[in-house]
Specification:
Length: 457
């Protein structure tokens, strides 16, 4: 396995060149940043209390230093280039090289010091969403602190009192700064490492952007009409799968920082909501689900036993959220015969393809064949072992395998289905079905009942 160090580029040179004074920076924790959107291995604690680290989907955890019993982290708010999926990059604002920023992991009772350096062109703050802390550490520009001007570094100090699932984001020019991707995940592990143990603990944020096909920078005044729906600023097919060995207990923690709710749906398993913004849900209060709605500003932790091997879809159930930018302004061409039109257009645009007559699935097949504007993802893309996958946006898979090492988070490839366990094409005759009339029709209406022959009555 590649060591985490390989992923980090130390940004010392960049610090000296920035508006931040070198002398002031000398006493701060080194700035660790990354330039990859890949899921990085969990960061096992080297000091402090033990815990089972989380894995950030297409993200990473920020290392810290201990200073007189205080865990110190250094977040740098700055413009970044984020690969949304292969073939598309976005100019976003993030922390330490990526958007979202790195995940912060601490333990209940830890004393925490957060250094926040602003390399954005405008003032910012960080709000530690959901935390119990002194009011003056809550990060609301104007209300609880002065805004952090460009080039300045502020310090937040508090004790991580409550174990659970949190987020961080600016509370200064929020509409702009969150639409540009300034956000990150925060996990406070319980002091007792045996409390609610799981084998795999995945975390990610739901985010959305409005980036016109062919452009790189989000439109930040959009209220509802976002066109890119992402898990941790990645769109399918750019989102890594979440993997588990058969029988493992898996937790997935999701925070929603978009402007709408997302019913998140897992195939092939039932899960329980075990945690919310407010803390852990007692066993007696949990109920089984296969879809849970996550409202704006909420966090949900779901848990299940990964007992069914396979490549199981995991996605937002709003179908427009599993589709990329190109799909949102198409007319419905179902049943429209375009052959006449095609003749005429081909004279003008030789590459023109008439699409949509029998649905829009052909968009997925054409992905890669059809010329798209530069820096634009097809509306749906991704290739499965049986063909194109008609999905984009908030879609990935949970891959459950019979054997997998404890610390193995790599994509194990496509699931090898047992013989006879895949839906198959019918060849030859239709199954023998007897059509029989109900003896007493209701009024004038006659009802036909389909009755399989081999069914006992
Ligand atoms: Cu959604």
């Amino acid at each position: 396995m590649t060591s985490r160090r390989d992923f980090f580029k130390l940004a010392g040179a960049a610090v000296a060149a920035s508006a931040v004074s070198k002398v002031a920076m000398a006493a701060l924790p080194e700035i660790v940043s990354t330039n990859t959107a890949d899921t990085q291995s969990p960061l096992s604690p080297l000091s402090g209390r033990p815990y089972h680290p989380v894995v950030t989907l297409n993200g990473w955890t920020l290392p810290w230093r201990m200073s007189n019993g205080v865990k110190e982290f250094h977040l740098v708010a700055e413009p970044v280039v984020r690969e949304i999926a292969p073939g598309m990059k976005a100019n976003l604002w993030g922390y330490n090289g990526q958007s979202p920023g790195p995940t912060i992991e601490v333990v209940e009772g830890d004393k925490v010091r957060m250094y926040v350096t602003n390399r954005l062109p405008e003032a910012t703050t960080i709000h530690w969403h959901g935390q119990r802390l002194p009011n003056g550490m809550d990060g609301i520009a104007g209300l609880t602190q002065p805004a952090i001007a460009p080039g300045k570094t502020y310090v937040y100090e508090f004790e991580a009192k409550r174990p659970g699932t949190f987020m961080y984001h600016p509370h200064a020019d929020e509409m702009m700064q969150m639409a540009m991707g300034l956000m990150g995940f925060w996990v406070t592990h319980p002091k007792n490492p045996k409390f609610m143990p799981v084998d795999r603990d995945y975390v990610f944020l739901l985010n959305s952007y409005d980036i016109d096909p062919g452009s790189y920078t989000p439109k930040t005044s959009t209220m509802l009409d976002f066109n890119l729906w992402t898990f941790n600023s990645r769109a399918f097919p750019g989102i890594a799968p979440m993997v588990a060995r058969k029988g493992e207990r898996v937790r997935i923690r999701v925070g929603n920082l978009t402007m709408t709710n997302h019913p998140i749906h897992l195939h092939g398993h039932e899960f329980e909501v075990t945690g919310t913004d407010g803390g852990w849900v007692p066993k007696s209060a949990r109920w089984p689900e296969v879809t849970t709605d996550i409202a704006v500003g909420q966090m949900r932790a779901i848990e299940f036993i990964a007992d069914a091997p396979g490549d199981w879809a995991f996605h937002c159930h709003k179908s427009h959220h599993t589709m990329n930018a190109m799909g949102h302004q198409l007319p419905n061409m179902l049943g429209v015969d375009q052959s006449d039109l095609l003749d005429k257009i081909t004279h003008l645009v030789p590459d023109y393809m008439a699409m949509g007559k029998s649905g829009s699935g052909d968009m997925a097949e054409m992905a890669g064949m059809m010329p798209l504007p530069e820096n634009t993802l097809p509306m749906m893309g991704g290739q499965g072992q049986f063909g194109p996958i008609d999905m984009g946006g908030m879609f990935t898979t949970v891959k459950v395998r019979e054997s997998l090492a404890k610390d193995d988070y790599k994509d194990p490839g496509a699931y090898q289905h047992p013989a006879g366990k895949v839906a198959y094409e019918l060849h030859g005759e239709e199954p023998d079905i007897q059509r029989e009339k109900t003896p007493e029709p209701m009024g004038d209406m006659e009802m036909n009942v389909l009755k399989p022959m081999n069914h006992a009555h």
